[in-house]
Amino acid sequence: MWVRFTLAEARGIAHYLGVLVLGMAAVMLVPLVTAVAVAEWEPALDYFIGSTVAAVIGLALMLADVTAPQISHRQSLLISALAWLFAALVGAVPLALSGNYGSYLDALFDAMSGFTTSGLTVAQDLDHMAHAHNMWRHLTHLIGGQGIIVAAISLAIALKGGAFSLYLAEGRDERILPNVMHTARFIWFVTAVWVTIGTAALAVINWLSGMTAVRGLLHGFWLTIAAFDTGGFGPMSQNALYYHSPYLEFGLLVLMLAGTFNFNLHADLWRGDRLEVFKNIEARTLAANIAICVGLVAVSFGASSLMGTDAELWRKGVFHIVSANSGTGHQTVYAGQWPQMGGGAIFGVVLAMAFGGMVSSTAGGIKSLRIGLILSSVVLSVKQALSPTSAVVRLHFHHLVDRFLTPEITASAFTYFTLYVVSYISGGVIGAAYGYAPAEAVFESVSAAANVGLSVGITGPMMPTGLKVLYIVQMWSGRLEFLSLIALVVAVFLAIKPHRRAGA
Amino acid sequence: MTRLLSLALVVCILAIPSPARAATLLPPVPLTPGAMTPADAVELGLAQDGVEIVLQGEAIGEALAAPGGKRWVNLLGDAVAIGVVVDAKGAAEVTRFGEYRQRGATLLVRGRLNSACDDHGGDLDVHATSVRIIDAGHTSPHVVHPNKLLFAAAAAVAAMGLVAHYRRLRRRTFL
User: Which one, of A134, A114, A108, lies nearest residue A38 by Cα?
Assistant: First the structure.
């Protein structure tokens, strides 16, 4: 039986949403300070407005229940789903005021793309965008990559009771430390270490390339966030191609790989357990997936008359496979160049995007753990078929600990696999219905639903409004791994469905 | 049906073009006869490799280091930017690059268009043989609209009022 939410439960949801939106108001002070520091007065006003609007909405929502009640698991699902929508809605306000977006919907598209670490963009005149707006766009990657809820938990924002439920509802599968607040803080610690190292390295590369101190540092910081949080935004319209630097591309490659790593593996490495990386089914599946996709690209480049040197294989082949597999979306080719790279390369990139990175990371897609488990279940089925009927055949796998593959684990992996594939295909069908070539429509749909951000050129300010809405929903649902969003749709449906009177 | 129509109406309202956009767009320097924009060059580069072209675009960002003591200058036109390899002397003559505060110099470049340059890791780029500055660039006006100031003040007053109301309600609830 479906159970409707009571008014008291809805008020509790509104209160905690308000807390999170108020948090967004506070984070918007960072681009506001950036704008003031570099004397960008109009953007400074945009962030003052954005922050106060977020504060008004947050406080209004908190007024729904000033007692800050305990929250249940089912409430946490809705809070998680709505937190991402509200974050995007208020996060879009300063972007809409920037003059770099054709409409509020376009600004909402970029805000959702930023928070979900997708990286697809419909911004206009990006090369003349203010530093403050670029700071905000990239900060959305940082907040969204670590998780809006994780950010709130780590700051010990008063989320009574359901902190762990909220953590799981945000599409995270495992906790790293026994206490969920410690887990959230560990995630931020790992991020801080990588962002510091990455920013320093990329800033030095930028300075040596000829950038000024301020621009080199800011671009280094933004690119690091975009790569480690597997986001893919760039401060220039050419994305990573703007820099024409193999050193910078190598730095991004390392950061993208680090970003797609499960935070549990970061913890194991931190504790000195390097063997875990080699034993873990998830790491092995990801490595195999990258190797197969790079192989496809190499074969494709071999058959191409344009790409063929080792440098091209690394800078156009390996770079884009890692960018796709990690769900980052950094790009060093023009959209129209994909066909030049050959069918095998495009297939490899789509496969890499669809499969995605690791669970409990900043990456999107189906996730390599689930792919590994599904492949293991195939092996188990073959083993069972070839064994005597009286034999008990079991298969174990290693993911942090040794475990046996059970029907429940397999079913869960298949469920998520199915949900992602349905989203990929349905988005592709709708894109094709808008008149785009089916292969291009599927590429863009996979890129949106797997939160990647690579584009064959469909995404842009001039694309149909219906597709903008579709990709916003795909990015949102893909980031939450569907469950929270499905729960939200069911709750809204039950709320608006007329009550049936007994005996009627 | 009514709910679906309401949803469609909301989407339409959200998609209303932003009035701020027109104010920030600056008219581009007119295209020199016989020259192509970076957008045209990228389009041509997808079809032909190694052709000689005349390219016009706005220099953006900064000149970046390129192998062999040369410099990369990225040129923007028709919302597409392309990397151009120029010699250091030519790059040094460009003093204004496009960014938030300014429109960069407009360059007229003659050079070879590479679909996937073997010297530069497969980049679609242009190797310039000559560079001429046809417009030095200028600062961009960014004026704060009075309506924004009014809206900011109204939002701040509303936020302060809500903070006071929330604190009063909290006190009343827990006393």
Answer: A134
